[in-house]
Specification:
Distance between the termini: 13 Å
Shape: globular
CATH topology of the largest domain: Rossmann fold
Radius of gyration: 23 Å
Number of helices: 20
Strand content: 15-25%
Oligomer: single chain
CATH architecture of the largest domain: 3-Layer(aba) Sandwich
Number of strands: 24
CATH superfamily of the largest domain: P-loop containing nucleotide triphosphate hydrolases
Helix content: 25-40%
CATH class of the largest domain: Alpha Beta
Structural class: alpha/beta
Length: about 550
């Protein structure tokens, strides 16, 4: 089997003007970044905002495992298959972060014969969106410290600054730092730290904003810290929201590229799903819905993280509705949830598959809580046996859901024509019925408990001392009506990464609750969530190189 990079280079790419023309865009509608990637201009976004709306298919997955589930590959493959059967489809996915690309996870551009291309560009600097977010975030940090350095008219308490700097690198050494050393001319020394760029509230804001005016408003609503009296201070009080938005002027425009089968693809934005909403930008999704009949998008990690936030946050802020969910499962992942070690995954083990089905069942139950129709896509790997595949298939059918086996990685669109046909049959002529899980007006504790109990299966939610103090502040200053974006491990339905399968009777512990008032949600922190990941002992960077002709090698 060829590597992803080799397949990408074998693909006959079409000029981006030709890809844009497939969805009704002219060369004058896009800003060109070379021959194969572009941004859609604001004038084109405005011109098409009243077009009929297409059908939206959300791709999610069971709880992720080290075996990999291939959610992005299935998303891209499904969109290609929809075009293959004569439907007009666009796939809309997130941009990869440089941290995981050089760390342990690798890139996020799909795989095999179902990729978005050019994968080297997309996985590295692309059109500069991540750099713009980094610059905007750190410019805001510098302006906050500059305000304190001079007269500090807003009476910001340097010990209560909540805004951190960011960098798009996995760098554990920057998690906790001391800044402002060097004497009175250098500022006021204080403890601080760095987050990785996808964890920045600026990234969440970029991906939740419907237009430039909303982007500026959201930036102005960011809470950057508190006064000595405990009162929140927002960006609009500093009067700099316009300057920060100016750095994001081009980053707000959706990026258009293509897949291995020349299907139009929007790759835009990249908030983490275990910190933020974990979906591509609403502006990209809404534009895709106006330019095609079927839009395939994905939510990060398992249904309990990305998809719950997609329905409760992204759809509501974006003002669109989801028509169906495709839930990706693999025999290999189910074996892990059944207790098999990674080194033994290639061995047939029907009993372990059966034991792992509890995890799949919980995610299927959760889909129904949002009023959604769904279909399970079994992403087939070469080591899967017919017996193992039939165990999963029969289980899904007995559950009352649709199911289809796909091989998009090895066969491209031909590996899942049946799934595309079933999706079309499921959504055509159907009125969108998706709904949220909770009322935003409910008390914060009730909203958190609803998610923890209904989606994770928790018996109880406990609050640490810091979280209890945070709750008092949230209620006092009117942040209690914001929706919830829980930060928890992606490795388990619980907040304990070691609890695989379907944990029962567990406790979720909230350590603190962050106020992301610009993005428009609260972030209860559970477990040991790292907003700045570290590198593994042998990072992917060890395999990446650049050849004498400028070609990159070692990306995956």
């Amino acid at each position: 089997m060829l590597t992803d990079l080799e397949i990408g280079r074998l693909t006959k790419l079409k000029h981006i003007d030709e890809i844009a023309a497939k969805i009704g865009l002219t060369p004058q509608d896009i800003d060109h970044y070379g021959e194969y990637k572009a941004k859609i201009r604001y004038s084109a976004l405005f011109a098409h905002e009243h077009n009929p709306v297409g059908k939206l298919i959300l791709v999610s997955a069971i709880t992720p495992t080290p075996a990999g589930e291939g959610k992005t590959t299935v998303s891209i493959g499904l969109s290609q298959a929809l075009n293959k059967i004569g439907k007009k489809s666009i796939v809309a996915v997130r941009e990869p972060s440089l941290g995981p690309v050089f760390g342990v996870k690798g890139g996020a551009a799909g795989g095999g014969w179902s990729q978005v291309l050019p994968m080297e560009d997309i996985n590295l600097h692309f059109t500069g969106d991540f750099h713009a977010v980094t610059a905007a975030n750190n410019t805001l940090a510098a302006l906050i410290d500059n305000h304190i350095y001079y007269d500090n008219e807003l009476k910001l308490d340097p010990r209560r600054i909540t805004w951190k700097r960011v960098v798009d690198v996995n760098d554990r050494m920057l998690r906790n730092v001391v800044i402002g050393l060097g004497g009175s001319k250098q500022g006021f020394p204080r403890e601080n730290g760095f987050d990785i760029t996808p964890a920045s509230e600026i990234m969440a804001i970029l991906c939740l904003s419907n237009n430039m005016d909303e982007l500026k408003t959201r930036i102005g609503n960011i809470t950057v810290g508190f006064t000595h009296n405990g009162e929140p201070v927002k960006v609009h009080q500093l009067g700099i929201e316009g300057a920060i938005a100016a750095l994001l002027k081009d980053a707000l425009k959706p990026n258009i590229v293509q897949t291995t089968e020349n299907t139009p693809a929007f790759v835009h934005g990249g908030p983490f799903a275990n910190i933020a909403q974990g979906a591509n930008s609403v502006i990209a999704t809404k534009t895709a819905l106006r330019l095609s009949d079927y839009v395939v998008t994905e939510a990060g990690f398992g249904f309990d993280l990305g998809a719950e936030k997609f329905f409760d946050l992204v759809c509501k802020y974006g003002g669109f509705c989801t028509n169906a969910v495709v839930l990706v499962a693999t025999v290999r992942a189910l074996k892990i949830h059944g207790g098999v070690k990674v080194k033994d995954l290639n061995l047939s083990n029907p009993d372990a598959v059966r034991k792992g089905l509890d995890n799949l069942a919980k995610h299927m139950e959760n889909i129904h809580k949002f009023g959604m129709k769904s279909i399970v896509a079994i992403n087939r790997f070469p080591s899967d046996t017919v017996e193992e595949l039939n165990i999963v298939k029969d289980f899904v059918i007995d559950f009352g859901s649709e199911v289809s086996i796909v091989e998009y990685f090895t066969k491209g669109s031909e590996g899942g024509i049946e799934l595309a046909e079933k999706v079309v049959q499921m959504v055509d002529g159907d009125t969108c019925q998706s709904r949220g899980l909770y009322d935003w007006e409910s008390p914060v504790e009730d909203k958190i408990y609803t998610i923890a109990s209904e989606i994770y299966g928790a018996q109880k939610v406990d609050y640490g001392p810091v979280a209890k103090t945070d709750l008092k502040r949230i209620n006092k200053y009117g942040f209690d009506k914001l929706p919830i974006c829980i930060a928890k491990t992606q490795k388990s339905l619980s907040d304990n990464p070691d609890l695989i399968g379907r944990p029962k009777d567990f406790l979720v512990t909230v350590r603190e609750i962050l106020i992301a008032s610009g993005a428009g949600f609260l972030i209860p922190i559970t477990g040991e969530i790292m907003r700045m990941p570290g590198l593994p002992k042998t990072p992917s960077a060890n395999s990446i190189d650049v050849e004498h002709d400028g070609n990159i090698s070692g990306l995956f």
